């Protein structure tokens, strides 16, 4: 059995690597043709374009691993069926499920590695890719400077900053608006700030040149000016949750955040009373997506047992079709999850659960478990 398992696994890995290589080339070529005009307009030379796609490859690989698994399953079963090897294996008393064990073990290993790859390697490469885009493809932006920040800090407070310097951890022309907790449409007070700077010792914002206007229930206004004011001393508010780390993370796309950074951001936003449905869906999706590798093997097996002698071109095209259906279903379920219509955990796992059920039902219909 060890010799047979090794033989099956060798063919499976070979088909998997072949599929991944082909899909990556196709993906890069399509993306390059779509963005070629942009690259030319921005004056990027060949080496910069190559650098861009080197940063992009981990994200592409993350998306294509399940597709490669499906293609490898279809190709492997088809090859063994074409030369009657699968028939001989079944005749020797080895079931189709036992035949698939080496593939499933490989899929499980890839799944475990993908959790680390998707959670830590891909975000770093995405960060490098997005920084590349900010530097070379979006030249209107000033590196390290964020303009027109508008942040809901808590359920009844909003912070706006016209200009924020990430390196200096300072901002200019900012304001803090505090609303009535019982009537969120009514403004209680407003603080207009000339400049603000993060005090790393006190872990608080030092506000300079602060004009404070307060409004009572009858909209009568009172005025006060502060040369210096720390946010912990602002009346009518328990705490300012905003920190330099949170400002930076808010500018980053979910694809740039490590798993622990996403979790910390969610906890921080929840503490400030904000809706975190979207952030939770993105977080749980990073964990659930790697499991598609092993699920898609079962799904591919359930299809290939009834189409053992299909041609390679048909298998290749079918893999792409299933990939589009799978990724499309993920996008639809994510949209529902972002809107808070579905539990974030269920949203992240919905595609995997559906495809696993379809695979099991089809395997039962083909009597694979009874062989």
Task: Provide a short characterization of the protein structure.
With 371 residues, the protein is α+β, with helices and mostly antiparallel strands. The chain is built from 11 helices and 6 strands. The protein has a 6-stranded antiparallel β-sheet with strand order 1-2-3-4-5-6, with no helix packed on it.
Describe this protein's structure.
The structure is a single chain. The protein has 371 residues and is an alpha+beta fold. The chain folds into two domains: 2-138 and 283-370, no CATH class; 157-236, no CATH class. The protein contains eleven helices and six strands. A six-stranded antiparallel β-sheet has the order 1-2-3-4-5-6, with no helix packed on it. Helix 9 (292-304) packs parallel to helix 11. The longest helix is centred in the N-terminal third of the chain and has 40 residues, at 2-41. The mean pLDDT is 88.
């Amino acid at each position: 059995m060890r010799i047979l398992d090794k033989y099956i696994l060798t063919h499976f890995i070979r088909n998997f690597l072949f599929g991944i290589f082909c899909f990556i080339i196709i993906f890069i070529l399509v993306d390059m043709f779509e963005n070629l005009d942009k690259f030319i307009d921005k004056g990027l030379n060949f080496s910069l374009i190559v650098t861009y796609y080197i940063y992009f490859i981990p994200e592409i690989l993350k998306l294509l691993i399940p597709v490669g698994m499906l293609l490898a399953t279809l190709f492997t079963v088809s090859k063994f069926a074409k030369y009657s090897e699968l028939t001989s294996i079944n005749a020797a008393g080895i079931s189709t499920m036992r035949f698939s064990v080496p593939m499933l073990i490989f899929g499980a290993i890839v799944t475990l590695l993908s959790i680390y790859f998707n959670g830590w390697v891909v975000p770093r490469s995405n960060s490098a890719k997005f920084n590349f885009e900010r530097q070379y493809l979006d030249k209107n932006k000033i590196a390290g400077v964020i303009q027109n920040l508008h942040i809901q800090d808590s359920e009844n407070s909003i912070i706006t900053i016209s200009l924020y310097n990430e390196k200096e951890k300072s901002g200019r022309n900012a304001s803090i608006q505090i609303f009535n907790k019982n009537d969120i449409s009514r403004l209680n007070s407003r603080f207009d700030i000339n400049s603000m700077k993060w005090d790393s010792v006190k872990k608080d914002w030092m506000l300079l040149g602060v004009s404070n206007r307060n409004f009572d229930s009858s909209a009568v206004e009172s005025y006060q000016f502060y040369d210096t004011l720390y946010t912990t001393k602002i009346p009518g508010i328990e705490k300012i949750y905003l920190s330099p780390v949170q400002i930076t993370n808010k500018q980053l796309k979910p694809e740039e955040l490590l798993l622990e950074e996403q979790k910390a951001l969610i906890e921080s936003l929840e503490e400030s009373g904000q809706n975190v449905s979207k952030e939770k869906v993105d977080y749980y999706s990073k964990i659930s997506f790697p499991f598609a590798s092993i699920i898609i093997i079962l799904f591919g097996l359930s299809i290939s047992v009834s189409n053992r002698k299909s041609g390679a071109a048909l298998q290749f095209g079918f893999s792409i079709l299933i990939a589009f259906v799978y990724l499309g279903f993920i996008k639809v379920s994510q949209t529902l999850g972002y809107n808070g219509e579905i539990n974030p955990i269920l949203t992240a796992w919905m595609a995997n659960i559906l495809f696993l059920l379809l695979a099991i039902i089809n395997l039962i219909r083909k009597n694979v478990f009874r062989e």
